[in-house]
Write a structure and sequence with these properties.
Blueprint: E1 2-6, H1 11-20, E2 26-29, H2 31-38, H3 52-67, E3 71-80, H4 101-111, E4 121-131, E5 141-152, E6 168-170, E7 175-176, H5 177-180, H6 182-188, H7 190-209
Parallel strand pairs: 1-2, 1-3
Antiparallel strand pairs: 3-4, 4-5, 5-6, 6-7
The chain binds inosinic acid.
Inosinic acid binds next to strand 3.
Length: about 210
């Protein structure tokens, strides 16, 4: 089986992707497995593109070039309409320190103080990119996006999920993502939708290549 590198250090994402790839003649490995096989760690990609798709494509291209294997990368975040699309590509480090969910949520609530409910619309966006070092993909890199729309509440609700989930009310579920939990969220999340958009293209590409 030939490897496909998923450019992540998140085990949860790796397991999700492996399940999706069941039945394809492809071994999905993450960056930890890459390091074990190559005997060296790959440098982290500097995510400085202005878009999610740009960051995902950059990550996928760098990992494919460094390993010689096809690579898939993701990038995601929250876009709030009343804030002109912020925090956007800065979602993970909105309040300064990377991945400080509590501080990020507090900063978001402060930024939206006094904004009425009908103007608190937002969306999660996820971009996926696949790069092939052999240059076999027509445009060098294959990308797909998924979006889920919601409203930012004025106080957190629910204990599940991560990131901005407690503040993100999803009308399709009638709950915040933190109240809904991983199962219902996983059915319609931005990430699920991005994978759904990518898969037909990826399967077609892999069928051609095998
Ligand atoms: P990453 O693409 O996994 O690095 O996510 C970037 C940041 O966007 C995270 O740190 C979260 O703040 C936010 N984010 C992305 N997806 C979600 C989600 O499904 N729920 C809540 N926050 C998310």
């Amino acid at each position: 089986m030939r490897p496909l590198v998923f450019a992540t250090r998140n085990r949860g994402k790796l397991y999700e992707l492996r399940a999706l790839f069941d039945g394809l003649d492809l071994e999905v490995i993450d960056l930890a497995e890459v390091a074990a096989r190559l005997g060296r760690e790959l440098p982290d990609t500097v995510e400085d593109a202005p878009t999610f798709a740009g960051n995902a494509a950059k990550k996928a291209a760098e990992v494919a070039a460094a390993t010689g294997w096809p690579a898939l990368a993701d990038d995601s975040g929250l876009e709030v309409d009343a804030l002109g699309g912020a925090p956007g590509v800065y979602s993970a480090r909105y309040a300064g320190q990377h991945g400080d969910d509590g501080a990020n949520n507090a900063k978001l609530l402060a930024a939206l103080a006094g904004v009425p409910p009908e103007q608190r619309t937002a969306q999660f966006r996820c971009a996926l990119a696949v790069a092939d070092p052999a240059g076999l993909l027509r445009d060098g890199v294959m990308t797909a996006e998924g979006v889920v729309k919601g409203v930012i509440l004025d106080a957190p609700r629910g204990t599940g999920g991560f990131g901005y989930d407690p503040l993100f009310f999803c009308p399709e579920l009638g709950q915040t993502f933190a109240e809904a939990g991983i199962g219902p969220k996983g059915q319609l999340s931005h990430r699920a939708r991005a994978f759904a958009a990518l898969f037909p293209h990826l399967r077609a590409y892999l069928a051609i290549e095998q």
